[in-house]
What does this fold into?
Amino acid sequence: MTICRPGKGHLMIQFDTVHKRFPNGTTAVHDLSLEMPEGGVTVLVGSSGCGKTTTLRMINRMVDPTSGTIRVGGKDVLEQDAAELRRSIGYVIQQAGLFPHRTVLDNIATVPLLLGWGRKKARARAAELLETVGLAADAGKRYPHQLSGGQQQRVGVARALAADPPVLLMDEPFGAVDPVVRTQLQDELLRLQKELSKTIVFVTHDIDEAVRLGDQIAIFRTGGHLVQCATPADLLARPADDFVADFLGAERGLKLLSLQHLADVPQGPAPEGGAWTLVLDEARKPRHWRATADDAELPVRPLKDTDSLLAALNESIASPNGLVARVDAEGVLTGVTSRDDIHEHASKTHGHGTHGTASVAI
Amino acid sequence: MYELFKNLAKWLVSGDQWAGTDGIAHRIAEHLEYSLLATLIAAAIALPLGLLIGHTGKGAFLAINLSSFGRALPTVGLVVLVFLVSGLSLWSVYVALVVLAVPAIVTNTYAGMSAVDPEVKDAARGQGMRGHQVLFQVEIPLALPLIMTGLRLSLIQVVSTATIAAYVSFGGLGRYVFDGLAQRDLVQVLGGAALVAIVAVVLDLALAGLQRYLFLPHSRLRSSGRDPHRRTAAH
It folds into this structure.
C-alpha cells in the first residue's frame, strides 16, 4: 500500500483506505489513501483501466466507494446529497460533454441556474466566464457544434467554474484536441490557476501533461494500485520502481531539467579578452557574441532566472564558448554561467532528489 | 378509368356531399375525433412508458419488441373481439386504435432516449442535475425529434385504420368505404379512401411543421441564424 501525504497546507480532499469493486468483480481502486492540498493541482496518471478516472469520479459521487472514506473540505462525501455535492464541485470531462441543444452561454450558466441564481444573474456570470477562458463574447450565442474542439473544451472549463467552486475535477479534458491546441489549453489552465488557486484534480494518461501541470503526481498501476505520489521533481529524480521509471520515459533526466530554474546556478562576470566577447548596448543588454580574431558575430539568447535548466543547457551548447548570458527581468546583463556550472547543478539536483520524496512504500 | 376519376372528382367537390350529418365535413370531424382522441390516449400511455424505459435503461427488450408485436396484431380482429365483449360501444374502436398506436410511440421514444450521447447525460449528472432534471432538461429535448416521429407514425396509422369504426356501425370516413362496398358504389369507396389519405397527409404535414417550429432550436438556428432563446430570455 502506498500512502501519499504532502504534509503542508490545508488538505482539501482526503482518501482514507478507499476501495472500489464493481458488481462485475473488477477492482477499480485498491485501498487508496491519498491527500490533496488546498489550492494545488494533483494529477492522477496511469494507463487505461488503472482506476484513475474512478478515483476522480468518487470525489463528486459519480461513483460511490465500496469501502473507505472520502472527505472534501473535511466532510464525508457519502453524508452529503449527491446532486448538491456535485453543484459545489466543478467537473470537466473529455469531449467537453456540452449540451448540444443549449447555447454556449446557457451551457456555462447550468450550475448557477440549478442553484437558483435566476436567469439574468446566471447569464451575466456566464458572459464574464467566456472572457475568463479566452472566448469572444459572440461565442455565447452559438451552439456547441459550431465551435472547434479546443473552444468546446474552454466552454467545458467555463461551465465548471461558473459557480466558483473551490474544487475542480478534470477528466482527461485535453485528450481529444491536437497537440498544439493542447499546449495552449495547458498554458491557459496554468494562467487561470495562478489567478484562481483552485484545488484541481486532473486525470491524464500523458506523463508530459502531468509534469507540466501537477504540483503533485499520483501514478496508478492496473488494478487500481497507487504506486507513487510525489512532486514532479521528486518523481523524476527518484521513481519508486521500474514501472514508474518506464512510465516516465527515456527522457526522464531532461524532463527533470525542464522543471529546475536557473536561479540557483552561480554566475560570474562576463569574460574579457577571450576568443569571444559579449557585446552590450548602451542599456547593458546583450546584443551578440563577437569573435576577437575576425569580428564575426553570433546571436545570443540571454536567459532569466525563471528559465529552466533545460533551456540553459540548450543555450550553452549553442553558444560559441559554452557561456550563457544571464539577464534580469528588464533584460540587463547580470553575468554569465558556464556549461560546467549548469552540468554540476543539474547532477546535484538529481542527487538531492532522492531525499524529501513524499511517497512511502510499505 | 377516365370516367371513374371524373366521377370521383365530381363526388369530392359536390356541395351536396359535404353538407349534413351524412356529409363529408361531418364525417371528417368524426374521423378526426376518433383518431386524435385515440392517439392522445395512446401518447398518454406510451410516452411515460418510453421515457421511463429510456431513462432507466430497464425494459429495453419490451420497448424494442413492442413494435413488431404491434405490426403483427390484426386490428380488425381486435375490434370485433372487443365489440363482442363490450357490446355496441365506441370502446371497441378506441381500444383497437390505442393498441395500434402505442407500440410505435414507445419504440421511437425509447430509441430517441437511448440515442442521447451518454457523455452528455454523464455531464448533466456531473453538473449536479437530479434525475428528473436530466430527463426534462437534457434527455427529452434531445430525444424530441424521434419522439415526434413516433407520434406522427402512430397518428397516420390510426387515421387510416379509424375506418374500421364504420365496420362496427359507427361514423367517420370509413362509412363511405363500407357503405360504398355494400352498395357496389365504387366512386364512394374511392372517395372515402382518398379522403382518409388526404386527412392523414395533412395531419402529418401539420405535425411536421409544428415540430420544426417548436422543438428544434439548434437545427433551426443552423438554417436561419436566429436566436431561438431571444423570445424567452431577459436581455
About this structure: The first helix of chain B runs from residue 2 to 13. Chain B has one domain: 2-222. The interface with chain A takes residues 117, 119-120, 122-130, 133, 138, 141-142, 217-218, 221-222, 227, 229, 233-234 of chain B (CB under 8 Å).
